[in-house]
Design a protein that fits this description.
Elements: E1 2-9, H1 17-31, E2 35-42, H2 51-60, H3 65-78, E3 82-85, H4 95-103, E4 107-111, E5 124-125, E6 128-129, H5 140-145, H6 152-172, E7 175-178, H7 181-189, E8 197-199, E9 217-221, H8 230-242, E10 250-253, H9 259-266, E11 272-276, H10 280-288, E12 290-295, H11 305-312, E13 317-320, H12 325-328, E14 335-338, H13 343-355, H14 357-374, H15 377-408
Parallel strand pairs: 1-2, 1-3, 3-4, 4-7, 7-8, 9-10, 9-12, 10-11, 12-13, 13-14
Antiparallel strand pairs: 5-6
Helix pairs in contact: 3-4, 8-13, 11-14
Length: 414
């Protein structure tokens, strides 16, 4: 199969689960003998633009005509079987869908978050769930609240793009790949076409290292942001420490807007280590040495890659009991779920998962089995190709129907 992957890469200074998923899927397909090429832009490149170029970036968010022309020309020249769209913000824009239509190539889109119904894609505001823009044609509440980067001005391009491109997305994509059933349910309720929304979980490559003993630390691995539950974790860990601790330290790995706050909180403590941003090899080693991985997100995670990475290494998870975590973590079997947003509940689950080593080991083994059954590369490849074939067949059927109408004189002559 010949696949063209379309992706706007996130800034390299901060960890990106989406970048990782895209790279892993490209490698998976190529490793299976498929021809895969990439059409991409990089957010890192914005810094090198001239001042007028930087000022123009928000104007390109809803629509980038140059991208449409460039991609359409490439599609006509190379004729891939399918285009797989990931992130289009901020430099690509939904113009990529018009390019696919121009060239007559079917498009598949992975939905990594909720940007189809929420301008910042989080369904969260001020640390709490928010659905004000869901079903809203203009997404004005997001602008009013400044939901993207706490800025009304920065939110405007996203809100405009959502409003003017809604129908283009819904009609221009053959298959939307939701990364969890929880995400699909939200999007169907928001009015997206259910018949085009399929669930395809992200896969995780074999880590090459698994937990061999009981673990030597609790691990938080991810972006240091409010929505990821970092402040909640700090509060819960203080409660754990006040009760005597759990015998192992908390390791926090990552970077983000709360980095200074985390650094100050961890300074001078024996029970906390802030280690900054790990590379992939360091991440795998840190996970494999964990008593458990902690994922306390306060927003409704559409997937939760770190949870599955822990499963692959035979490590249980303590995760918030909402969003995709509920379908990824079987409470008491492959990990523990805490009540979302409640530090006391999180502290209780941390104590429990560290205090029962035999049960912890059993949960880790069950987590590994769950990975093998649902999130391995073999499973990921099968599901991905299945959705590509469905998209190609759908576009072929639509083309045949159009040809039939034209031959009968039923086509629109305008």
């Amino acid at each position: 199969m010949h696949v063209l992957v379309v992706h706007n890469r996130y800034a390299s200074a901060q960890p990106s689960g989406e970048n990782k998923v895209v790279d892993q899927e490209v490698a998976l397909l190529r490793g299976a003998g498929h021809r895969v090429e990439v059409f991409e832009r990089r957010s890192d490149d914005i810094a090198a633009r001239s001042l007028p170029g930087k000022v123009a970036v928000p104007l390109l968010v809803p629509w980038n005509p140059a991208v449409r022309a460039e991609l359409a020309a490439r599609l006509r020249a190379e004729r891939p079987d399918v285009v797989h769209v990931h992130n289009v913000f901020p430099l690509l824009s939904p113009a990529v869908l018009a390019a696919c239509a121009d060239a007559g190539v079917p498009a598949v889109a992975t939905l990594h978050n909720y940007t189809q119904v929420c301008p910042p894609g989080t369904l969260q505001r001020d640390g709490r769930p928010c659905t004000e823009c869901v079903g809203s044609a203009a997404a004005l509440p997001a602008v009013r609240h400044g939901c993207y980067r706490n800025s009304r001005l920065a939110t405007v391009p996203l809100a405009v793009s959502l409003s003017v491109n809604r129908r283009r997305w819904w009609s221009g994509v053959e298959r939307f790949l939701c990364i969890s059933a929880a995400q699909r349910e939200v999007l169907v309720r928001a009015g997206m076409p259910a018949e085009r929304l399929a669930v395809k979980h992200n896969f995780v490559p074999e880590p090459g290292v698994r937990r061999a003993a009981g673990g030597e630390h609790l691990l938080y691995l991810g972006r240091l942001a409010e929505a990821k539950g970092v402040r909640l974790l700090m509060t819960a860990w203080d409660e754990v420490a006040a009760g005597g601790g759990v015998g192992v330290p908390l390791v926090i790995a990552g970077t983000g807007p709360l980095e200074r706050e985390v650094t100050a909180w961890a300074a001078g403590r024996d029970d906390v280590r802030y280690v900054g941003l790990y590379d992939q090899a360091e991440c795998r080693q840190a996970i494999a040495r964990s008593v458990a991985v902690v994922a306390p997100s306060t927003w409704l995670e559409a997937f939760g890659l770190v949870v599955v990475e822990a499963m692959a290494a035979g490590v249980p998870t303590v995760a918030a009991g909402h969003g995709a975590f509920v379908e990824l973590v079987e409470d008491g079997v492959t990990g523990l779920l805490h009540r979302p947003g409640e530090s006391a509940s999180l502290a209780s689950r941390i104590r429990r998962i560290a205090a029962e080593p035999d049960r912890n080991r059993e949960m880790g083994q069950a987590a590994r089995r769950r990975y093998e059954q649902g999130f391995s590369p073999a499973v990921g490849l099968e599901r991905l190709l299945e959705e590509y074939r469905t998209a190609i067949a759908g576009r072929s059927a639509l083309t045949r129907a159009g040809d039939t109408r034209a031959s009968r004189g039923d086509g629109d002559s305008r």
